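tool_call: predict_structure(chain=1)
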Amino acid sequence: MAETIKHRYDFVFFCDVRNGNPNGDPDAGNMPRVDPETGKGIISDVCIKRKIRNYVDLVKGMDIDAPDVEEGDLGFKIYVQEGAVLNKRNEKAYVHYGLKPERTKLPKKVEDQRRVTKFMCDNFFDIRTFGAVMTTGINCGQVRGPVQLCFGESVDPVMPLEMSITRMAATEENEGKDNKTMGRKQYIPYGLYRIEGFISAALAEQTGFSEDDLHLLCEALMNMFESDRSASRGLMTSRKLFLFKHESKLGNAPAERLFDLVKVERIIPDEQEARAFSDYRIDFDAEDLPAGVMAEEFDYIAPSA
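tool_result:
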């Protein structure tokens, strides 16, 4: 039986991009997201969660139609996927327990309400990690996930650029040989991004988020770009992960105090534009770590598959 985490965790994660678009904004022609006041690049929490889901799906490979896990075990199916019909996934909980769903309503018995929600947490990694609202159509309730992420923000302002691209092939025979469809490609030359996150032991008790899930989450953060390449994203790389473990379930220090221990310094002249990870130094002040908090620093975590 999987054991849920007993300690609160906080973390700081660094990744960078070179000549790519880490997170395009569809409302701005897919240009890289930027804070208009500071010029710093932004990566949404949803973007990072998507990549974590993709990695877990890749290494665990649990098809949606795979057998349900036994009581007390945890599965690694992914709830939010491209093309997924979520109500069909919710229906699995009712089928498993032989219940008849009523549209938008939970089962009448409180025990059955808990069972269908727990079924979804047990079988789907992203539900017990990030939570989910499962109240549309076939109702499986809703849960708050123990893992929450802030927006990623670049250390320095970034320069969003756009270039024209052409193609040599035609779509129709009657197109002229000189007809070359134009397109656009959006990117930034370089950006180092910092992402902060939180893991609640209290909420983990409700979803079943386990120690194994925690290890898989850290593994995903450090490997999620390696198996999710695309020309539009350029070279994205996971650089560092600082994981803070509290002795208590509710924590031994404010998260912000821990995050302040991790600092980034440019080691190039101020007038020079950063173009590589080696243009920065990341320092961690371990001596000021509050009592009751331990810290681990990762540069790499080997894939489990």
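agent: The mean pLDDT is 94. Proceeding to next step.
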